[in-house]
Design a protein that fits this description.
Blueprint: H1 10-26, E1 30-36, E2 50-56, H2 66-70, E3 74-76, E4 85-91, E5 94-102, H3 111-121, H4 123-139, H5 142-163
Parallel strand pairs: 2-5
Antiparallel strand pairs: 1-2, 3-4, 4-5
């Protein structure tokens, strides 16, 4: 089972502090950092891991930031998505932060940002996702937990993409 926590006001503070700290390390290689994932959604339960999306500067390869991010305590996560760079930070053996780094040209329509925007803007979508997520967390962990949420994530992402005039795409970019 996955451990979900009630929304913590500290998550927004943690994101802001971490984003500022990261900018000190990666600027000018990264131009934007945003809070994504369930910890970015007021009123939504979440695993206590801060997810962030970063926009790489033009001509910067998101997969090649490992040495720079190592200075901030991040390691490259190679088992995840292949279409963007993923880096994680841990404290006492527990993952605390995930940084998804997207190429400049991927930023405007990246699934993680679009999904977040749908949940922030649409209370019905947020409620539907919360229901599925809560049931999935009670029954599964790890990849099975993620798989149990995949249909609702795909539906809500497709809705958001259509609302923006974008073609559907696979939600899970692994």
């Amino acid at each position: 089972m996955e451990h979900l926590e009630t929304r913590q006001s500290s998550w927004a503070v943690d994101f802001a502090q971490e984003a500022s700290r990261l900018f000190d390390v990666v600027r000018p290689l990264v131009t934007d950092i945003e809070h994504i994932g369930s910890t970015a959604i007021p009123g939504l339960e979440a695993k206590p891991v801060i997810d962030m999306a970063a926009r790489a500067a033009p001509d910067v390869d998101p997969h090649q930031l490992g040495p720079v991010l190592a200075a901030a305590g991040y390691t490259r996560h190679t088992a995840g998505p292949k279409n963007h760079g993923v880096y994680t930070r841990e404290h006492d053996g527990q993952r605390t932060h995930i940084l998804h780094v997207f190429a400049d040209g991927q930023w405007d329509d990246c699934n993680q940002r679009l999904f977040r925007d749908r949940l922030l803007r649409d209370p019905a979508a947020r409620s539907r996702y919360r229901d599925v997520k809560t049931r999935a967390a009670a029954a599964f962990s790890g990849r099975a937990y993620t798989a149990a949420k995949s249909q609702i994530v795909q539906e809500l992402l497709d809705d958001e993409r259509a609302a923006r005039g974008l073609a559907p795409t696979m939600a899970w970019d692994k």
